[in-house]
Amino acid sequence: MSRRIVTALGAAAVAAALWFGAGAVAEEPDGFALAVGQNGQIRVPDVDYRQSWSLLGVYVVNGDEKADGIHAVYTQPDAVTAYRETGEFPDGTVLIKELFGTETSDMTTGNISRAGKTEGWFVMVKDATGRYAGNPLWGDGWGWAYFAGDDSRTSPTKDYQAECKACHVPAKNTDWVYVEGYPVLKKK
Ligand code: HEC
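Above: the input record for the complex with heme C. Below: its predicted structure, written as tokens.
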């Protein structure tokens, strides 16, 4: 290989490392490039997850008269494949829970609620190797963040232990994830 080519390859590797950020070099799973910044900050991946990711399932918040909220949860199709094989979420799995408001009306099937406007997101990123020790968004094998309104880039979450963990304790035995609501994780 000529020296010039070697130098060009070196420059490309450096450019890739800068692009993905320190701690997320080329061999890191995609989930980190999509959802995690240089210092472990988390964002909602800028991908069309509604179309290109798997819908894990939907939780409906029941109100008195109508559904009060619809929570739709998505992940990468590869994560579903791996989970079906191993029963575990692989390193780099990103779980997006999209919060929908609801619209309720009489339809020919009955009184029906459907997804309305997006009101925010919760995101979890699987970190099987403890990359961000000491960062309060990371622990128990995941990165954790909430996003309000339509700001999918800046999370108000400061500390998952205070803001997320207690509520996920009932799901501790399934890696903190409420898998019972996600039929796609099991073959029909
Ligand atoms: C009030 C309790 C509560 C709090 C606080 C909470 N969660 Fe959850 N979370 C749940 C429950 C219950 C579910 C499943 C049912 C649902 O969506 O209502 C869930 C589901 C999720 C899901 C979908 C995957 C799964 O685990 O099933 C993500 C992602 C998530 N939460 C992330 C977070 C993050 C990040 C935080 C903190 C910023 C957080 N949650 C705080 C109770 C909570």
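Notes for the reader.
The radius of gyration is 19 Å.
The pocket of heme C is lined by residues 59, 71, 73, 95, 97, 122-124, 144-146, 157, 160, 163-164, 167-168, 171, 177-178 (CB under 6 Å).
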